[in-house]
Design goal:
By secondary structure, the protein is of the alpha/beta class. It is built from eleven helices and ten strands. It is globular, with a radius of gyration of 20 Å.
């Protein structure tokens, strides 16, 4: 889609607006006010409790709100692994492991709830982090059912049902609206399963640059962009793992951590400035709960958000908030006709 302001077509409901045409101004001589520049930051996995604390502190310090895509195997200990079986996998297998024990699980549940209370968005990253690129719709439905049942019963299963927040069941049923596929591998069976389970957005796509969400049925589909990075300005997916592979071939190189941080920060700055001074398409940045290359990418994120979120007409928001903002912009544009 065009990067012009008039092409910001979004859901009211979001999928319906995405399918509509761009609004036309009554008078070409009247300049349309630019929309807010959205910065959408998300974390995949959402397991390490210390990084839950660190990310929440970063959000408070910078004024950002995040989306956390949670892998559900981190909500029950490894000695209960036999309760999980991913499609076409052996029972008890997970590519990302499980919680170490009940104490760790209880702490994680507390972090999830604090993040929710602080205005962050909790989404699904499925459970065992398997490549679902060839999964059928029924396969995905099975995985989503296990995800939701795990969250619904998480406090009881951890042996502390009396600590379950009063609003937890409603939260699990109504507020988990987003998904990102492990490995960004989203096959043809995914969208129908997302619709069946009430998801309203998917963040599993990749685009050549910042792009507006597109509609697939009732699901808004967001894409992590390719952004220029490094001296050669070669495009890379705006995600910490992809930078990690680019910079050090996926192996830790702590002695170069500062250089990697600076290169990453500059890439974020350049991608942001291009949109902020241009069409103001949302900028999406993806991270994991792993501090790769001695924390280079988390440090770059912290610095970027610190200098960016307070700028005029900038909103550092979760995917759920972005959908609301985009929908309201569409509604306001329609009312102005």
């Amino acid at each position: 889609m065009s990067s012009s302001v008039s092409s910001r077509i979004v859901l009211l409901p979001l999928a319906a607006a995405l399918a509509a045409g761009p609004a036309l101004a009554k008078d070409d001589a009247v300049e349309t006010a630019k929309p807010k520049q959205l910065v959408i930051v998300s974390f995949d996995g959402a397991h390490d409790n210390l990084l839950w604390e660190k990310s929440r502190a970063m959000a408070k310090r910078t004024g950002a709100r995040f989306t956390y895509f949670l892998s559900c195997t981190f909500l029950f200990p490894k000695d209960e692994r036999a309760t999980y079986q991913a499609p076409h996998e052996k029972r008890g297998r997970s590519n990302v492991g499980f919680s170490q024990d009940r104490e760790e699980t209880i702490l994680r549940l507390g972090e999830i709830w604090l993040a929710k209370l602080e205005g962050h968005d909790i989404g699904s990253h499925a459970c065992g982090h398997f490549d679902g690129g060839k999964w059928s719709t029924e396969d995905w439905k099975s995985e989503f059912t296990f995800f939701h049942e795990t969250l619904k019963n998480a406090w009881q299963n951890a042996g502390v049902g009396e600590r379950e927040p009063a609003d937890w069941q409603r939260f699990v049923t109504e507020d988990i609206k987003g998904f990102r596929a492990p490995y960004l591998s989203a096959g043809s069976g995914l969208v129908k399963a997302l619709e069946a389970h009430g998801f309203t957005y998917d963040a599993s796509l990749v685009s050549k640059g910042p792009a507006m969400p597109v509609a697939s049925g009732t699901v808004a589909r967001f894409a992590l962009p390719l952004v220029p990075e490094g001296a050669a300005r070669r495009p890379v997916i705006a995600m910490d793992y992809n930078l990690y592979v680019r910079h050090s071939k996926g192996k830790e190189a702590p002695e170069k951590s500062t250089a990697f941080e600076e290169s990453t920060l500059q890439a974020y700055r350049d991608a942001f400035t291009k949109q902020y001074d241009g069409g103001r398409i949302p900028l999406q940045l993806g991270f994991h709960f792993v501090e790769m290359n001695a924390g280079a990418y988390w440090r770059a994120l912290d610095r970027f958000l610190t200098e960016t979120c307070g700028k005029q007409d900038v909103a550092c928001v979760s995917y759920v908030e972005a959908m609301d903002i985009l929908a309201n912009e569409k509604k306001a544009a329609g009312a102005a006709l």
